[in-house]
Amino acid sequence: MSNIGYVHSIETFGNVDGPGIRFILFLQGCTLRCKYCHNRDSWKLKDGKQMTIDEIITEVLKYREFFEESGGGITVSGGEPLVQLPFLIRLLKECKKHGIHTNIDTSGGIALTERNVALLTELLTYTDLVMLDVKLMDPEGHKALIGVPNEPILEFGRFVAKSGTPMWVRRVLVPGLSDSEDDLKATAAYIKELQVVERAEILPYHPMGEAKWEQLGYEYPLKGQRVPTKEEVKRAENILQSGLT
Fold it and tell me: For the chain, what is the mean pLDDT?
């Protein structure tokens, strides 16, 4: 398995991507094409910086005392971290050797082929938490907003649930695109089906990625899109969290 991965960026004191204070490693490469993506430069795998497992672990261990005090650890995000699955397995295995809590922030962007199922089964033995972004339950709306079908993503969530790995489910709330009551209720039903979801969160849409798209020479697909109000966010949270009961 690969000892070298492609890294987009690192955040050393994250506090919204899992429990406690987190070292957040954003890996390069993504299979999704979200119209609101704020890391548009993470899509191409080899555009990232190459780092070895040892280099990353050396950086992570600098913050171990903060993890221990806050109940934190490492969160591997992206891009889509599952694009670099063999590397991710080695990385989390090393983290567990040092007693570090491991979390994967994923959109489930991986096909459940025989090979991938074997790799994911191994990965989950080193994974303490999976945060799954469920963008939309409606297949057509998902493909229009995210660029890919959602059935493989939903199947990935079911696969994780069968392993017994704790999960958080997240939804980016985009007014007029991912905020319908019916779709939120369908997501709550999916959460209830999984049975291992400990937390359901709404992430309000923000246009912070617009400048990055334009800097890279791309037209931002959601130019002019408004952000949700506090009332809209609260309403969506209430619906989504009904799946936890």
Answer: 96
